[in-house]
Amino acid sequence: MLVVEDSPDLAEALLRHLRGQGHAVDHAGSVDAAEAALDVAEYAVALLDLGLPDGSGLDLLRRLRAKGDRLPVIIATARDQISDRIAGLDAGADDYVVKPFDLDELGARIRAHARRAQGAPAARLEIAGLEIDRARSRVFREGAEIRLTSREWAVLDALLGARGRVLSKTALEEALYCFDAEIAGNAVEVYVSRLRTKLGAEVIETRRGLGYLVP
Ligand code: CA
Question: What top-level class would CATH report for the domain 2-118?
Fold first, then answer.
């Protein structure tokens, strides 16, 4: 996802939180930087601050929509600026969040919009006796939560997003890139093994030489 926010402190807090939840996040601190990022990368969702040093986030949003770009955009508005919210929704925003953010709520909204854009199926899945809530990144067995680390969740969530298809080790490594600049060669095997220990061996199948899948 892309976070467009010019306040360094707020941007840092957002990035740390969203990366901690398993999102691959780019940051832009200006309209120019955001347009450059949007030109070269495909994002699932963008969080857009409206007051940016070199222009208005609203104008950026209007230009996107004028080009026919349907990227889900969540605008960030101040609590007392109802007119901003209306203008943002009119300009083509999909949602808004009010500053100061509740980071957990923001994360849930981001995941909801990203899923909707991907046309993904239900957020709640039942697999091998587990109930998996993708919107909240939580897994339960018979009502009891099974705690996963954010890296374990990132691997599981990538497999769930491609359910029934084999994901290569490289594809799964990408799900881990947002955590470490360098990923150990056996990282995917390690996290798959931990997930099987916690969730049951049958949850993730190995296709030797090809990769892994959740059937
Ligand atoms: Ca700002």
Answer: alpha beta
